[in-house]
Design a protein that fits this description.
422 residues; Hypothetical protein af1432; 18 helices; 4 strands
């Protein structure tokens, strides 16, 4: 049965045409992401705690899988509600799954610590942003070998689904730290919008960044649902969150009655060793907090993806915000994670400086510290901004383990055996 929610505009490809097969265009999108090298790398990239420390902590890969499951469930739940959705007219769960699986592809090693460091290093050269980097991978660099670099010929709907932010780096009055697209991605933005002119009013403040397709909104809420709750679970298991620490934190916060009930529920779940079960039920509640609402904008004539928007009950949004703040204040601001962030910052800075000295500001003594393929890509760039982007792409594509081993080979005298070259 044909799904009338989507049309040829939604399935148009960015790049070369594909050979048709038994799968839908969105199933091909999903399958290509799952089988991509960049997706497998997420198993060794930090979510909260460094990957590999313990088997039960979430990595970027397991987080992406959880987000995809929540995204699919939201699609199925919205379809059961009736209303605008029905047989032959529904939000495609394969598309939403592909968007969710892809949403963190561009995030660098060391989680948000690595992202902040690359943002600082790239501010002179067009910036670094995890979501913009995801789009960069999908459209330009996902497939790489010794002779070519290219994207995956994604559908317009997939690219739009990962496009959490639509404002370009140059469109901000001063260089932003996050929530932007790279300036060269203006071409991709134009493709995603089908060449439609963006109304002047949307350029004010963050309005353009809030203008998202319905699949992007589902991914965004699924992401919030996953990490706002699962960071708490991992934090408790790791010993970062205890009743004593939470009570000390709450003593300095203006805790209202609904938030106190959330804390009491959390304490009861920890005491009864029911935390995972209780928080799994909360994910179900976050899914059931969703509904659709029709809207009018400059894209509704082109696609149903902008004719509808996701509405989430305020109580669920406030609960997610509360747990995110709790996790941030107690876990991410803890001395232990701050020490790891300091170390991650030094690793990224030192590697960046070594790459810059040997591939950009070449002196009399140059060594080949990067793979030959990457060195050729840097040398092919005519501007420092282009060379900086190639170095940034390389560092962002490393896993936690890969970047640490590279750092140790360069700076640790006790590490450097031929067996350490992988």
């Amino acid at each position: 049965m044909q799904n009338r929610f989507y049309n040829a505009f939604d399935t148009e490809l960015y790049g070369a045409e594909r050979k048709p097969d038994y799968r839908s265009p969105f199933q091909i999108d999903r399958d290509r992401i799952i089988h991509a090298h960049a997706f497998r790398k997420l198993q060794s990239k930090t979510q909260v705690f460094l990957s590999g420390e313990y088997d039960f902590y979430r990595t970027r890969l397991t987080h992406s899988m959880e987000v995809a499951q929540i995204g699919r469930s939201i699609c199925h739940y919205l379809r059961t509600r009736g209303g605008p959705l029905q047989d032959g007219f529904f939000i495609d769960s394969d598309l939403v799954e592909a968007v969710c699986l892809a949403h963190d592809l561009g995030h660098p090693p060391f989680g948000h610590s690595g992202e902040r460091t690359l943002q600082e290093l790239m501010v002179k050269w067009g910036g670094f942003e995890g979501n913009a980097q995801t789009l960069h991978l999908l459209t330009a660099t996902l497939y790489q070998n010794e002779t070519s670099v290219r994207g995956m010929q994604a559908t317009r709907a997939l690219l739009d689904g990962v496009l959490k932010y639509k404002k370009l780096f140059r469109e901000f009055p001063k260089p932003p730290q996050n929530h932007f697209l790279y300036d060269p991605q203006a071409e991709v933005r134009a493709f995603v919008l089908g060449g439609a002119k963006i109304p002047r009013a949307l350029h004010a403040g963050e309005k353009l960044n809030l203008f998202k397709s319905v699949e992007c909104q589902i991914m965004d809420w699924a992401d919030d649902a996953a990490y706002s709750l699962n960071d708490i679970v991992d934090g408790v298991k790791a010993g970062f969150l205890s009743r004593e620490k939470i009570e000390a934190w709450a003593a300095n916060e203006a805790i209202n009655a609904p938030q106190q009930r959330l804390l009491d529920e959390l304490f009861d779940a920890v005491r009864g060793d029911r935390l995972e079960g209780v928080f799994s039920q909360k994910i179900g509640a976050f899914i059931r907090a969703c509904r659709l609402r029709e809207r009018e904008n400059f894209m509704t004539a082109k696609t149903n993806r902008y004719r509808f928007e996701l509405v989430v009950e305020p109580a669920a949004q406030q609960e997610a915000l509360f747990f995110k703040k709790l996790a941030n204040d107690i876990i991410f601001e803890s001395p232990q994670l701050q020490q790891i962030e300091h170390k991650a910052r030094r690793v990224v800075f030192d590697l960046w400086n070594s790459c810059w000295a040997n591939y950009v500001e070449k002196g009399p003594r140059v060594i080949n510290i990067l793979p030959t393929r990457v060195g050729k890509l840097i040398d092919a760039e005519k501007t420092k901004a282009g060379k900086a982007r190639q170095i940034c792409d390389y560092l962002a594509g490393l896993t936690d383990g890969m970047i640490v081993r590279t750092y140790r080979r360069l700076f640790d005298p006790e590490f450097g055996s031929i067996r350490d070259l992988s």
